[in-house]
Design goal:
- With 396 residues, the chain is of the alpha/beta class.
- The chain has one domain: Metal-dependent hydrolases (TIM Barrel, Alpha-Beta Barrel).
- It contains 17 helices and twelve strands.
- It has helices at 20-24, 44-52, 76-88, 92-95, 99-109, 121-124, 132-150, 170-179, 203-212, 237-258, 261-264, 279-295, 307-314, 327-334, 354-359, 362-365, 367-382, and strands at 8-13, 35-38, 61-65, 68-69, 113-117, 156-158, 160-161, 184-187, 215-218, 270-272, 315-319, 339-341.
- The strands form three sheets. A six-stranded parallel β-sheet has the order 7-8-9-10-11-12. It has a three-stranded parallel β-sheet with strand order 1-5-6. The chain has a three-stranded antiparallel β-sheet with strand order 2-3-4, with no helix packed on it.
- Strand 11 (315-319), helix 14 and strand 12 form a beta-alpha-beta unit.
- Helix 2 (44-52) crosses helix 3 (76-88) and helix 8 (170-179) packs parallel to helix 9.
- It starts with 7 loop residues before the first strand and ends in a 14-residue tail after the last helix.
Length: 396
């Protein structure tokens, strides 16, 4: 038995094969399945990309739906930067597309268990003008596929997409995935069809998650075709990415707080993912010392305690290793038991050696806190049994 801390990757991603949509969508929706459109090799963009590309660069393709890109505001330079990063990690996307690839990568990094979040599929439920029945069909198809993807390994755990286009149907899909053994669902932080995460129409869904002890991961993705922080004033991938993740998570927590979701559902577990944790001390202090202290009367009926108290009771947040320089501030405000470790594998906007970077923080954090961050906290968030057990999962 190894003495090293077990590691639970709280936010890892799967790469969905484009052909799976026609297989898993109901027949009525198959003709509208997304496609990948290669960039024409002799076009202006292709020539520009190749002229500046590193060795091993592969021409990216664009995901299309109904003749339009699924992503909004993706520039030529952004595609080049993404392609360059992927060229530096030639096997990462391929590994993210198969169960064996994931477990092999996890073995190399020393990761024991991972919860798998969507990549391309998350954008198909983030098109604001999509018909609700179609968005629900995309979510259901993905959930069927990821359940089969993870079925052969106890180390790979599926996270279900829930479409918010029609709140009345959310509990139906939740019940279906709970019956299949899912322990977590993922929601976008953005408004969908004009409804924030705190909208009253979502109340039955949150109640059902609480009853079933289902973890709710909140996860953004830059360039979605829904209202997103920064998208009204910036066009570059640089600016859009900088804004979307942390600012949408700040507003997601605020929507759940201001809408009374956290007050009404004290056992509901919320994970604020892939935005780092540096925003948390500032945001909680601002909400406590300014908004709640001086302006709380307007929401007093359903915000009955300081906002930070709700966060400490039922919210979790992922950290990036570079945040070790100020992790002490976060721990002082919310405790070491609120922080999760994740790799974001195989996406290109995170380093490939995050496990060694995290282990290097042991002197600053202390071994007990590091063990909490690497395993125990995520085990509590996802509701895994016996989080204190030290036996390692068998390699897959």
């Amino acid at each position: 038995m190894s003495d090293r801390p077990r590691i639970l990757d709280a936010d890892r991603h799967v790469i969905e094969p484009i052909e799976m949509w026609r297989r898993y969508l109901p027949p009525a929706y198959r003709d509208g399945a997304p496609t990948l459109q290669p960039i024409p090799p002799d076009g202006e963009l292709a020539r520009a990309l190749r002229a500046r590309a590193p060795a091993g660069f592969r021409m990216p393709a664009i995901m299309m739906l109904d003749g339009r890109p699924v992503w909004a505001k993706v520039s030529e330079r952004a595609l080049l930067d993404i392609g360059r990063t992927l060229a530096e990690r030639p096997n990462s996307l391929a590994r993210g597309a198969t169960p064996r690839g994931h477990t092999a990568s996890m073995d190399e990094a020393g990761i024991d268990v991972a919860f798998l979040y969507p990549s391309f599929a998350s954008y198909l439920v983030a098109i604001d003008d999509m018909a609700p029945d179609r968005a629900a069909a995309f979510a259901r198809a993905y959930n069927d596929w990821i359940a089969e993807f993870c079925a052969g390994s106890a180390r790979l755990r599926p996270v279900a997409i829930i479409s918010r286009h029609e709140p009345a149907t959310m509990t139906d899909e939740l019940a279906r995935v709970v019956e299949r053994g899912f322990r977590a669902v993922v929601l976008r932080p953005n408004p969908i069809k004009g409804r924030t995460l705190g909208h009253p129409d979502l109340e039955p869904f949150y109640a059902a998650c609480e009853r079933a002890s289902i973890a709710v991961g909140i996860h953004d993705g830059t360039h979605a075709r829904v209202p997103t922080a920064g998208a009204d004033r910036f066009d570059s991938h640089f600016a859009l990415h900088a804004c979307s993740h942390p600012m949408e998570q700040m507003m997601a927590f605020l929507a759940l707080l201001e809408g009374g979701v956290l007050e009404r559902h004290p056992a509901l577990r919320i994970g604020l993912l892939e935005a780092g944790c540096g925003w948390v001390p500032y945001w909680l202090c601002r909400l406590d010392e300014l908004a709640y202290k001086y302006l709380g009367g307007e929401v007093a009926e359903h915000v009955r305690r300081e906002p930070s108290a709700y966060f400490r009771r039922q919210c979790f947040v992922t950290m990036d290793p570079f945040e070790g320089r100020y992790i002490a501030d976060l721990i002082a405000h919310v405790g070491a038991d609120r922080v999760l470790f994740s790799t974001d594998f195989p996406h290109p906007d995170h380093d490939a050696d995050l496990v060694p970077q995290m282990r290097a923080l042991a002197p600053a954090l202390g071994e007990p806190a590091l063990r909490c961050i690497l395993w125990d906290n995520a085990a509590r968030f996802y509701g895994l049994p016996d989080p204190g057990e030290r036996a390692r999962a068998a390699p897959g």
